[in-house]
Amino acid sequence: MIEAFAEPAGDCPLCPRLAAFRAANRNAFPDFINAPVPAFGPPSARLLIVGLAPGLKGANRTGRPFTGDYAGDLLYATLAKFGFARGTYDRRRDDGFALVDCRVTNAVRCVPPENKPTPAEARTCRENFLAAEIAAMTNLRAVVALGQLAHNAALAALGERRAAFPFRHGAVHALARNLILADSYHCSRYNTNTGVLTAAMFEAVFAELKSILRT
After folding, report:
1. How far is Cα 203 from Cα 207, in angstroms, rounded to an integer?
2. Which pLDDT band, with edges at 50, 70 and 90, does 200 fall under?
3. Do residues 121 and 18 touch, judged by C-beta distance below 8 A?
4. I need a surface site. Which of 51, 92, 107, 122 has the fewest CB within 10 A?
5. Where are the beta strands (DSSP E) in the chain?
6. How many CA atoms lie within 13 A of 211 on its CB side?
7. Neighbours of 74 (CB within 10 A)
8. Adjacency order of strands within the sheet including 172-174
9. How far apart are CA 24 and CA 34, in angstroms?
10. Facing residues of 181 across strands?
């Protein structure tokens, strides 16, 4: 049975700086969603992917995580390749693209200025939403953290000590409750353009997860 989990309200006031930034963006970009971005994919999934926060002109525009920017192009193509998605991804929330046994969320639900949430904002969103979301996913077996900040947020949400599980691309950490945490560099355009992350490196993370989830 899946426990109840509530996404943040569209006018969530918990982080005043992020609320003010949303309000400013509603004036600057009136066609954007400009609200906390809900997770994408079924809560019954065994795989959860955790990013940092919505992109200003990506998920903040479309209202779906990693939708509308390069990071989503790489992420969703990879998920489809390994059977975690079906349909055609078209950078739109209504493109019919669907996740299979997989859910995508962000450690911080609202777009932050300069893509940098403060530690207090990350803690507030984690304590009010990410931890509850993970607890509601009763079939969960694996978490993929996209970047070190997402890694830290996932560990804190799971009640694990950060020092015991250092972030390293390609690492697979065995956690309590028969969960694993897999690390990847974030699939941002900056990381791929600079060679920090290649498509092959990213796909290798999901190939290993696919093998683990078969067992």
Report:
1. 6
2. very high
3. yes
4. 92
5. 47-51, 85-86, 98-99, 102-106, 142-146, 172-174, 180-184
6. 8
7. 20
8. 102-106, 47-51, 142-146, 180-184, 172-174
9. 9
10. 143, 173
What are 55-74's pLDDT values in tens digits? 999 999 999 999 999 999 99
Task: Note the pLDDT of residue 2.
Answer: 44
Strands 172-174 and 180-184: antiparallel
Tokens representing residue 22 in the block: 């949303």
Residue 185 · residue 197 · CB < 8 Å: yes
Q: Given this model, what pLDDT does residue 4 score?
A: 64
Tell me how crowded residue 4 is: count the other CB atoms within 10 A of its CB. 7
- Residue boundaries of the structural domains of the chain: 24-214
Distances (CA, A) of 180 to 102, 144, 187: 14, 9, 20
The answer to whether the beta carbons of residues 82 and 206 sit under 8 Å apart is yes
Provide CB contacts within 8 A for 73, sequence distance 6+: 89, 91
Q: Who contacts 174 (Cβ-Cβ below 8 Å, separation ≥6)?
A: 180
What is the number of other CB atoms lying within 10 angstroms of the CB of residue 191? Answer: 22
pTM of the model: 0.95
The span from the CA of 180 to the CA of 145, in Å, is: 11
Which band of pLDDT confidence, cut at 50, 70 and 90, is reported for residue 86? Answer: very high
Q: What is the pLDDT of residue 177?
A: 86
| Token pair listed for 14 | 């918990």
Q: What are the structure tokens assigned to 122, written together?
A: 């990350």
The fourth-level CATH superfamily of domain 24-214 is Uracil-DNA glycosylase-like domain (3.40.470.10)
